[in-house]
Amino acid sequence: MTEHRPVLAVIGAGPAGLAGALAAAARGVRVVLIDSATEAGGQFYRQPAKGLGARRPQALHHQWRTWERLRAGLDTHLAAGRITHLSDRHVWCVERKSSGFSVHALIGPEQEESVAVRADGVLLATGGYEKVLPFSGWTLPGVVTAGGAQALLKGGLVLPGRTAVVAGTGPLLLPVATGLAAAGAQVVALVESAGPRDFTRRARTWAGAPAKLAEGAVCAAQLLRQRVSVMTRHVVVEAHGTERLEAVTVAALDSEGRPAPGTQRRIACDTLAVGHGLLPHTDLAEGLGCRLDGPSVRVDDEQRTDVPGVWAAGEATGIGGSALSLAEGHIAGRSAAARLTDTVPDPREWAPAARARTRLRSFFAALDAAYAARPVRWTEQVTDETVVCRCEEVTAGAVREAVGALGAGDLRTVKLLTRAGMGWCQGRMCEPGVAGVAGCTLTPARRLLARPVPLGVLAAPADPTAPQ
After folding, report:
1. Where are the domains of the chain?
2. CA–CA dist 35, 365 (Å, integer)
3. How far apart are CA 135 and CA 381, in angstroms?
4. 132-276, superfamily in CATH?
5. What is the pTM of this model?
6. What is the pLDDT of residues 3-15, one digit of tens each?
7. HSE-up of residue 194 (Cα within 13 Å, Cβ side)
8. Which of 27, 127, 142, 429 could form a disulfide with 337 if both were Cys (CB 3.0 to 4.6 A apart)?
């Protein structure tokens, strides 16, 4: 009779998911690694399609040696049968059952069929997604998110345009600007709404993370070599063009976070890569009933959620970069392996990862505070004609009318009155912008399904099976 080995489903094959999968597999647990991409690596280690024949993919990445170690570890466990990697699987629901969990995932690019995998435990390593804020002209072709520009470069080996402005706020802008410049784009400006003074006040915190300081210094040196104009305490107020983007107007911010009169400047470009930070991807956690702390999944020192048998790691528990994701994933994998085999975990075994987690959480908390030190009054610049929900083509004026004339006081009511958030993305992209324009609190939607699912799949879901 074959001895049953517990199965851990790891959802997401980025840094946190890979670290968790490797740690659990090395300790006797069968791991099913489920990911929407065709190759492991997640957004941070996004790999170009094999058919493109990339000769030096490491030129597009930071920390390539870390990726090589993760890839080698994954290959070893795959060959030994300790990890099953299900790629091109889009998880839409994790169902709690008396005997464990059923993880439901749509298959391939068509996403018309679903498979279900039975597991004894689940590690949510679902990452984060970009926060998008509307402004006049943001729907023009040529305006992309900062992460979208990076994905095109890493995954498709293509530039989104030849002359680029990178704008918004947050630590993602630096590597996006340097990556585009290194690949041959002319980055004419990096427009950051935060200012140097917001960072110098926290010098002690930066000194505690020398690796991050070095990484930032390298990016700054590359921008200097490429002669990229860095404009701090500035913001893009409008994108211009007819058929596609032709130019952007930027302005300096005053002490109140408003564009200062007389500081507007028009910059010609065919690409605007814009980002306003990241948000944790918590749809699956919300569907399971996991408790949230603000926008992030709440976890304990073992990365356990308050739902028994469910762990979470990486950006889903708070945006903090790849190094923090690796530390959290390692801890979660070790904890899951112990708990699923009825062993009491020994935190001393992951003490170095726990110390790194503490240090990096402190660093990124200070980083978030620095970027948010002087808020930008961006909603005042959004005209009534500006589309805020692209799927349903809802304008800011319609949202303001729902609040001012019709009495909407929360996002759900705004959605019912205007259809903002009822499109394909179900508000995942437009919610921050709609909430800002409406003056409503951005609250978790508590969706049962994490992505759109064909009715045929809902009518006849696949029977859950254990990995072979």
Report:
1. 7-129+279-366, 132-276, 378-438
2. 28
3. 7
4. FAD/NAD(P)-binding domain (3.50.50.60)
5. 0.93
6. 678 999 999 999 9
7. 21
8. 27
